[in-house]
Amino acid sequence: MDGRVVLRMAPFPSGSLHIGSGRMLFVNQHYRERYHGRLLLVFDDTVGSEEKRVETEFFDLILGDCELAGVRPDEVLYKSDRIGRHYPWARRVIERGAAYVCRCPAELLRENRAQGRACPERSQTPPEARDEWDRMLGGSYAPGEAVLRLKTDLADPDPAFRDRVLFRISDLDHPRVGHRYRVWPLLEFSWAVDDIELGITHILRGKDLVVEDRMERYVWDLLEVPGPPFLHWGLLRVREAKVSKSKSYREVKTGVYDGWADPRTWSLRSLDRRGITMEALREFTLSFGMSLTDIEVPAETLYAENRQRIDARTLRRAFVPEAVRLVIDGYPFDLAQVELANHPDRPELGRRTVRAGPELYLARPDLQAHAGEEVRLKDLVNIRLPTDAPVAGGTARAEFTSRPNQRLPRLTWVAVPGAVPVDILEVDGSHRIGFGEAALADAEPRATYQFERVGFVRLDDAPAGTRPVRVVFGHP
RNA sequence: GCUCCCGUAGUCUAGUCCGGUCAAGGAUUCGGGGCCUUCGACCCCGUAACGCGGGUUCGAAUCCCGCCGGGAGCACCA
């Protein structure tokens, strides 16, 4: 087994991979590594349909998703390059008397199938079928006028399995191969062929494709070729991620979403943008094993996995949302600045000097929650808050009370001089604006921080110096 | 409706093939406590599960039957 395993992943290029479809990447990668095998990426880009079009931009997008996830396929192939190889297989099936060219309109075909009724063409002899097949290939039929169908059992309990269509005619312009082919195989048959021709040893895929197993197996048995075993995983949904691929597609296309990295897509790249590491995502995904159960997991589980990985190396910074300017009467003059640790438990991550002073920004929600109370400004002094909280952007006065650390509610603050405007992009696409401490002024793009009492955020990939500083919320 | 698949704590998972070592392990959540100048981290403690009903057996989460519940598919899409 070791070293001889060949796996394949077959995405349809219609969007970026999201948290659920990413499972394909991690599972295949996992088994590839475990058995030192090969992993092929085969774009399942047969011609599709009017509703399901192949779009070239998605080839690169998906390749980028793989790269991001740290999955490097040994080979990248396109089904659309391989269509010619499927025709001889069709011929073999016809020779066995197991396929015929059906000229029923789609409507009638479906009805007959539902009734378990045979179409007149079903009785074609192999030579007749071959002639008809040649006419199909030769262009005698228009799209919809003829299909090649497999003879199974019209009494099969599963109607979907009765004489499935193997090839159909389509005039759609394919973005890679144009009009090179008119006769296109359907997914099941194309895989029955390619899984053999590519020497695939194990097929690992989502259970949405289990019916297709049966078709592939049927063709292999018919042609007396041994085929690889199938393994499936159930549906994985993240509770908070109500993603629909078509919705994401629409919103990205119309610009409602900020591209495929918009947090609302829950795409791999959006998670990366939020500072969720691919290692965490990989562990998270793999933890579900190959169970056939459909599962719904709270995002918190993923967040916990990520927190475990990044907490110890992530620098702390102060951020104040819905900032209110607070002038503190009686503030001690010698406390113009304080030196703070970058991480409470990791001295090796260094320290920074932060401006303090009598003019500070505080969060309006904090002011409201503790109106009139004495509070501790974290790492600074104790003050008494005003009884009325002004609106965000307003100013209020507070009163210095004492210096020593006391067990009081601890609030986050940012000195007004040098405060950096920050815009947090939330998971639901909304924005939270506020001020961050001055140290954020020269933060590197893509750097991850923990905003104390807010959560883990990652800087967007904007040029340094962009104001407000754009960050994306990761998780608490 | 038909076909296939799946049911272990709030959530996810180990165990089910090959019955005993499972009075069910782990993770996360939640509750309580400790510690640290974050509501984060860390440490300690705790709550909590074999869908239901029969059967086989000395013994069932594990095998059999029935029921109930959930999911997916039923395209000339992938």
Features:
elongated, Glutamyl-tRNA Synthetase, domain 3, 7-stranded mixed β-sheet, Ribosomal Protein L25, Chain P, Rossmann fold, 27 strands, 476 residues, single chain, 3 domains, 12 helices
Question: What would you note in describing this structure?
Answer:
The chain has 476 residues and is of the alpha/beta class. The chain has three domains: 6-81 and 190-295, HUPs (Rossmann fold, 3-Layer(aba) Sandwich); 85-185, Glutamyl-tRNA Synthetase, domain 3; 315-475, Ribosomal Protein L25, Chain P, CATH 2.40.240.10. It has twelve helices and 27 strands. It has helices at residues 22-34, 57-69, 83-95, 106-115, 126-138, 187-197, 210-223, 245-253, 268-273, 278-286, 299-310, 364-369; strands spanning 6-9, 38-43, 75-78, 99-102, 147-150, 165-169, 183-185, 203-206, 230-233, 236-238, 295-297, 315-317, 319-321, 323-329, 337-341, 351-355, 359-363, 374-377, 382-384, 395-402, 410-411, 414-415, 420-425, 431-436, 448-451, 455-459, 469-475. A seven-stranded mixed beta sheet has the order 12-25-26-27-23-24-13. β18 and β19 form a beta hairpin. α3 packs across α6 (187-197) and α6 crosses α7 (210-223). The longest helix is centred in the middle third of the chain and has 14 residues, at 210-223. The two termini are 43 Å apart. The protein binds one RNA strand of 78 nucleotides through α4, β6, α7, β11 and α11.
